[in-house]
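subagent[fold] <- orchestrator: predict structure for attached chain, return tokens only, no commentary.
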Amino acid sequence: MLRYLTAGESHGKALTAIIEGLPAGVEINRERVNEKLKRRQGGYGRGKRMAIESDKVEVLSGLRGGITLGTPLTLLIHNKDWENWESIMDHHNKKLPQERIVHNPRPGHADLAGSLKYRQEDIRNVLERASARATAIQVAVGAVAQEFLSNFKIKLQGQVVSIGRVESKALPQIVEDKLYDTALYCPDSQATEAMVAAIDQAKEQGDTLGGVFQVIAEGLPQGLGSHVHWDRRLDGKLAQALMSIPGIKGVEIGIGFGGSALPGSQVHDEIFYSAQQGFYHGTNKAGGLEGGITNGENLVVKGAMKPIPTLMKPLKSINHLTKEPVSAAVERSDVCAVPAATIVGEAAVAWVLATEILQKFGGDHLEETLTNYHNYLEYITKR
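subagent[fold] -> orchestrator:
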């Protein structure tokens, strides 16, 4: 069973992850992992924190000579901003300084609910872990999953579909040009210009913007996931993974909500067969999933991100100790983080797909997994 745990606070010393269950024999290219981390920090509309950090992963265990050992893989990302917060976030000093204490919860964050649940007087004890800073280590974990998936010729790409009310003409396919050199990781250049203008306007008004991204996976075999139990359906696992990303409030697979307004004759993908392709569909409105199982078409999943709730012109709130009306606390934040969420979403989908590959094909070493995989492909082809 493939699984991972992460730990760390936004302004703590470091972020860590332990990955368990990755087979031996998988080559991990650290530069490719770091490139994913760099992309998460990019995108127009990011805040000052990204100018401080320069995320790079360090491997503490489970790897030798760039190849996994089959033992737990430990990843670490140092927080450079720790130098400015060491006295405030000290692990042992019981007399912490009073600066940076938070009593005014921010609407839209975990501040109020978390402080009530965990009985915290200082909301910082909640917001430090609830912060989207934790997604840095999740991207590293997802990048490791992509290193594994590359052995099966499975490719993934995240793309920005919309920012605010500006929608692109993005197609549900991977683009090979320099997508990540663009301002917003959007393949539609005209829409990108309008999106940048919308972000600039929001910044001038002290406001924030959300949007929608899509993650596309190519090269998936038929048969990942299951219809047998509710918790084995792949669409459910993908939805949970994407909804666990901070700020994500909606998930679509294929045409998603749009299909609810159409008759069935315009929604479902007709099935064909050829000796070269085997079974295939004439369209892909299902987004590569039917009955919770991959059907051989591209997987297309969308995530809707709400506007960041930390505003430079803060909303009304209540001091959770005195119960007096106040303005919400202001923490350093972004105007728009949809491009970053796109990279996090790509990582989340990669992780789910890697777990499904191992669930179906098993193996303690990559060669064993690949043998089982190719035997299955041969069976599918001969059907």
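orchestrator: received. Logging for downstream: The radius of gyration is 22 Å. Residues 102-382 form a domain with the Chorismate synthase, AroC fold fold (CATH 3.60.150.10).
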